[in-house]
Amino acid sequence: MADSGLNPGRIPDALLLVVASCPHCPAVLASLAAMAKDGMLGRLEVVNVAVHPEVAEALGARSLPWVRIGPFELTGLRSRPELEEWARRAGSADGMADYFHTLLKDGELARVRAMIEAQPELLVELLPIVANPEAGISVRIGASATFEGLAGSAALQALVPRLAELAAHDDARIRADACFYLGLSRDAAARPALAVCVNDADAGVREIAAEALDELG
């Protein structure tokens, strides 16, 4: 057996939806089957949606091939190296953050919001995007829209201490975003960090911090 590079306790299972008319399904199936043989997958389940359309409907799968590796849902033709990378991420602490970054980069904001609305504790996985000065504008906008949708929520309020740390980041854009999200928290615990930022060296940070304090009332 090949060395999977995964912790045995974190080897993910995979589910693949296929149909006979799908031109890319055989290649994805072959890659996943080889990964299962090499120990990178604990179990591989394959469903022919022509026979069981209810499975695709329940999962919201609208294009094939559709594969789920651990918590990650992927569609379309995927190479074996790409599938292997997602299998590794399924067993890593940063995997979900990477997944959200990829989805937002690909314009899948609705999927990110749906996942976080279903599991609000996943909101924390957007913090690496907030803290990344190299994150693209579409990714940052998507993260912002998701935070706005959870304004005043317990999930956002739980992130106030970490957002307060980001409000002291070296990068002004990160400080500004952190201040904005602190305001959205509607939590009085955000006030001390914002009070510091109203005297920030950057005018944009000062303005957003002042608006955030007003948001807190």
Automatic annotation (TrEMBL):
Entry-linked InterPro entries = ARM-like (IPR011989), ARM-type_fold (IPR016024), HEAT_type_2 (IPR021133), Thioredoxin-like_sf (IPR036249)
Q: By what name is this protein known?
A: HEAT repeat protein
